[in-house]
Fold these 2 entries.
Entry 1:
Amino acid sequence: VEQASVPLLPVSHRKGLLFFVFVGAVAGLGGGVGLAFALEFVRQGLISPKAAEQRLRIPVLATVSYKR
């Protein structure tokens, strides 16, 4: 066990801050775009009545139209 001592030089916390912020921003942007493309690629929704019939192997009796 040693006694605490006062450092002779100040500690610089901002030494690589800009680099880490830049790397984090690029990684976040790249990850977000990659995730968006991956989710769109493996989308599990039923887009049309024909796709629903093919996937579920049952006939579609009615549809509800989307009105904007």
Entry 2:
Amino acid sequence: MAHSLSAKKRVRQNAKRRLRNRARIGAVRTQIKKYNELLRQGDDVAAVEKELQLTVKKIDKLAAKGNIHKNTAARKKSQLARKLNELKTKQAG
């Protein structure tokens, strides 16, 4: 347990930041699940593309805030885009 005032304040700040960071990461995970669900339905490619844009935007914000590493963000975006391209080729072919 923290004894000094500054250590107690640091504990409070860390708790706030942890909640904020977990909320951000959770929001992105939810967004990715929503995108994957739309992708599974595969009816409307335009809607899936729009959802991808929104998902990429959220991932970029997460990387900019430092919640995830830039390379992790790039990898996730690449995976999501690859899935969309597979859907497009499946519908075209």
